[in-house]
Amino acid sequence: MATKTTKKKTKTKASPKKITSLTRKERRVKKIFFICLALVLIPLLAFGWMLLSAKIDGGSPIIGNRYDGDLDPAITKSDLQSVEKSAKAVSGVNDAEVHLATGTLRVYADIADDAGSDAAFSTADQIYTSVCSLLDPSVYFTQHDGKKMYDLEVHVYNYVPKDSYDEGFVYVIKTRTSSMEEPLSQLVSEPIDAALAQELRDDVERRNNPQPESTEEPTEMEVSGEEG
Prior knowledge:
Distance between the termini: 131 Å
Low-confidence stretches: none
Radius of gyration: 41 Å
CATH superfamily of the domain at 77-193: Cation efflux protein, cytoplasmic domain
Largest sheet: 5 strands, mixed
CATH topology of the domain at 77-193: Alpha-Beta Plaits
Number of helices: 6
């Protein structure tokens, strides 16, 4: 009887050790599981937050000013009206428009349809002079004190062509950037290299209107002529 009792006591002492070892294993598995879950969820949550933020801010404009601290003094709406009125008063100008965007003052002037390049250059010079009489170039169109200032462009054209290769079309641009000491005039309606421009036009024409390849066989005279 004593022997049996001893065996039973031995069994009851071993069972708590077995339960304790299983609990530690479960804890270790759970810890690994939660670590892996966190590694997976953190990137997903971050990505989801980015998508949600983008959706919320999708209709909101991005407000910024690339000329913060520059363009001082500024060209006002009243100045634009004065420039437009002055440009329209120039001899030979049928109509004129003034636009101010991204730090550039642009004056567009429409002259007579039959006007040539000389008249366009002369009109551009007169409009440039009229603008400078209202807005001092040394103040508004010249960099100073490390600040960016306005650029000035005067566009003069005789008409809007229906064909980009219209020989009668005249377009002159007189430009003065804030880093230039003197303005530059250019006849942009004429290519600098006329031969190259014509070659490019011919290439475009061939692409737009390809010629069908001939399927006729050469005659006996053509063959003999080639052999000769």
